[in-house]
Amino acid sequence: MNDPAAEEPTEAAAPVCPRHPDRVSYVRCQRCGRPACPECQRPAAVGVQCVDCVRESQRAAPRVRTVFGGSASSAAVNGRPIVTLSIIGLCVVSWLLQLVTGGRWTELLWFWPWGGVDEPWRFLTASFLHSTSPLHILFNMYALWITGQFLEPLLGRWRFGVLCLLSAVGGSVAVLLLAGDPATSDAWWTRVVGASGMVFGLFGAMLPVMRRLGRSTGQVLVLLAVNGAIGFYVPNIAWQAHLGGLVTGALVATAYAYAPKDRRSVVAWVVPLAGVVLLVGLAVWRYSSVGVL
């Protein structure tokens, strides 16, 4: 005899998200067919995919690189140049600290040729300081943003970061090299602050990068001429830092732009090492030539 209760259909269990079993989801991934809750859904060309399938497809996808060897997929996050924004953020925070500490933060990090002997970090840290006038930091941050959002995606985060840091140090080294005779020149005691050396390094980098892309460099040259002239005619501007950053940035970018395709990874490591050795060597030579070392 048949059991009527056994013939009654049982209700099927509601589908749940594999990553969140406490969440019911009737939406399924178009790739693997598993349920995906709203948190685990990602828009696809047709329907949605789960986060696991999206991650797997990204891992399997070929890594696209720019003509300069930078990773096109990692050069920016959500379309934003994160190294550029990070440097701008550091400069802004540093400027606020300059204001609230009554200049003590500035004294700790600014650069002057005599100070770099015993406190070499000043060759770099001075680039993250600015005068108390908002115009100084506003101009430098605007120039950094304009050039950075163009160069960083092309070069990649690592190469762009190296370019910025070496240009900053190159500007300070140029101030040291062009300081004149320490017995008669006040430049050895003149304090220098500002990201101008770094910014001019990015200006200089634009030249080989634009040439490598086959684009005109006319606008960049005009920009350099105007800003370079300002350094000579406006007082309290360290044109030496501008020149040092410009030369350093141009050399670094040239190495990156014209590196052979099969040697780009090697060049990416050689450039920062060679740059540090060269800049440190020039500083040591200069200090030795005046009897400091």
UniProtKB/TrEMBL annotation:
- Gene Ontology molecular function terms on file: serine-type endopeptidase activity
Gene Ontology cellular component terms for the protein in this record: membrane
What is the annotated localization of this protein? Membrane
What protein name applies here?
Rhomboid family intramembrane serine protease
Transmembrane stretches in the record are 82-101, 121-146, 158-180, 192-210, 217-235, 241-259, 266-287
Q: Which InterPro entries match?
A: Peptidase_S54_rhomboid_dom (IPR022764), Rhomboid-like_sf (IPR035952), Rhomboid_protease_S54 (IPR050925)
So which domain of life are we looking at? Bacteria
Enumerate the UniProt keywords alphabetically.
Hydrolase, Membrane, Protease, Transmembrane, Transmembrane helix
Keyword Protease attached: yes
Q: Does the keyword Transmembrane helix apply?
A: yes
Q: Where is the Peptidase S54 rhomboid domain?
A: 119-256
UniProt similarity note: Belongs to the peptidase S54 family.
State the membrane topology: Multi-pass membrane protein
Q: Which organism is it from?
A: Promicromonospora soli
Sorted alphabetically, the Gene Ontology BP terms of this entry are: proteolysis
